[in-house]
Amino acid sequence: MKDQLKALDSINLEIKKGDFISIIGSNGSGKSTLAKHMNCLLLPTAGDIWVDEMNTKDKSKTWEIRRKVGMVFQNPDNQIIATTVEDDIAFGLENIGIKTTLMRERVDWALEVVEMREYKKSEPHLLSGGQKQRVAIAGAIALHSSYLVLDEPTAMLDPRGRKEVMDIVKKLNLEENITIIYITHLMEEAAESNRVIALDKGKIALIGKPEEVFTQIEVLKQLRLDVPQITELALRLNKRGIDISPHILKVEDMVESLCLYI
Amino acid sequence: MFIHLENICFTYSLGMPFETEVLKNINLEIDKGEFVGLIGHTGCGKTTLIQHFNGLLTPTSGKIYVEGVDLNKKGVNLRLVRQKIGLVFQYPENQLFEETIYQEVAFGPRKLGLPEGKIEKRVREALKMVDLDYNLYVERSPFSLSGGEMRRVALASILSIRPKMLILDEPTANLDPQGRDNILSEIEKIHYNFGITVVLVSHNMEKVAETVKRLLVMHRGEIIIDDTPREIFEKHANDLVKVGLGLPQVTECMHKLKAKGKDVYTGVLTVDDAEREVLKKMKKPIKR
After folding, report:
1. Contact flag B253-A161 (C-beta cutoff 8 Å)
2. What global pTM score does this model have?
3. Helix, strand or coil, per DSSP, at residue A108
4. Which of B273, B269, B271, B276 is CA-nearest to residue B205?
5. C-alpha separations of A45 from A5, A71, A249, B95 in Å
6. Distance of alpha carbon B167 from the chain centroid
7. Which residue does chain B place closest to A225, by CA atoms?
8. Segment A122-147, tens digit of pLDDT
9. Distance in angstroms (rounded) separating the CA atoms of residues B36 and B41
10. Interface predicted TM-score of the whole assembly (ipTM), two decimals
11. Shortest CB distance from B256 goes to which of A128, A160, A251?
């Protein structure tokens, strides 16, 4: 095609089971394209993607991969289809032909995990944005997925909704050992993960622990990304010769360090 | 006084099973030339409130005056009011519909019945205000643009009506950091260069506080705080947290230091502010 565009360019990446990685990058950097490769929604033009030893190009494995890799998108209203919360979660299970009794069990378990059990009979449109996203997450994990890809799940939520979703995501990772791939524009959210990947024009521009990535202020600014306020403050004070670690990501740590000087 | 709200109450589905009181006795005055932020949790009534400003909604009780005119009096020309007060909805890119950007931005002036020559002038002027090059953009389809550009076109199509007041509902929602900063600086420029009164609705505390001069905080249908961002961060931080609105990290940091008995100023808005305050209060700069 005349307008062909290389959205991803020679990406090499390995995600370990149980990890919590976040992907940041400005609009058009390839974040969502990368995410969609993880459960065969897109297939690579060149190269291979393996999910638990299964190649996403192997058509006989497509459904198995999609069951293992759950996905949650940005707009909660686009992914809820049923008229009650529990029906919505049962939808995916019905599609893979789970027995009714087992289905009941799975739905209740998933709702329990996302702390939405009391809403199981509710109509989805009466829920808040954060609650809707939690229902969408429950729908994915009810299939017993081992990996969850979340594509800017909090972009349309207010601060409270964001916190609800982030708390659940952390819980899934720690308590249910679900591997998390979390796409976000919010650096405070990315700071919660174990590893941050910054994409730029389809390439991996930065990769490392949050404290390693977020201290690269100049690079982040070039990539048109935010730097967490507290890290920027730490770096500036450090540059002025004050003995404060430039790797500070959390407000509490900053307060502790500053207490020695003020 | 540009706009004046007196004891405004609004209830959705009045007398129906799902009756909800959304606005409770709102009193508010906004002067010409002000730059106001309106923040609050989802469902607190922000959007309902601003829809009263230009008569899109009629209050259940109370009065609204725009430049002294009572909006709910019989015979008031609401079209004129809506020319004065431009409302940019959330995700305004969803309301783009014309074939070219020119037609899109010309839609409002055309509806005003202006001659073609004047319409073109308005389109040029509006596109310039949002920093889109007239020659590069007019013939393009609005749907070929990036999210941030679409939003600027939507903004231009309101500006082409030459409103005196601009209300923007979550103008930065869903944009990446760069897109967000761009649109905010466009809005600042529009305010300062053209003297347009601006009301910015958002739940992005950090950026709004840096931008506006006066901040209204809404909670459950009431305006609970009305002050400058600095004063609010200094004195009402607890209230903000209580109603589910976070503080910027640097402000939170200052408050936590204060809670530990440190004598610091807590009305900081930016990293610059925080850096200055820390340096000022340092007992003795300890060099490594």
Report:
1. no
2. 0.84
3. helix
4. B269
5. 11, 22, 38, 35
6. 5
7. B177
8. 999 888 888 999 999 999 999 999 99
9. 17
10. 0.82
11. A251
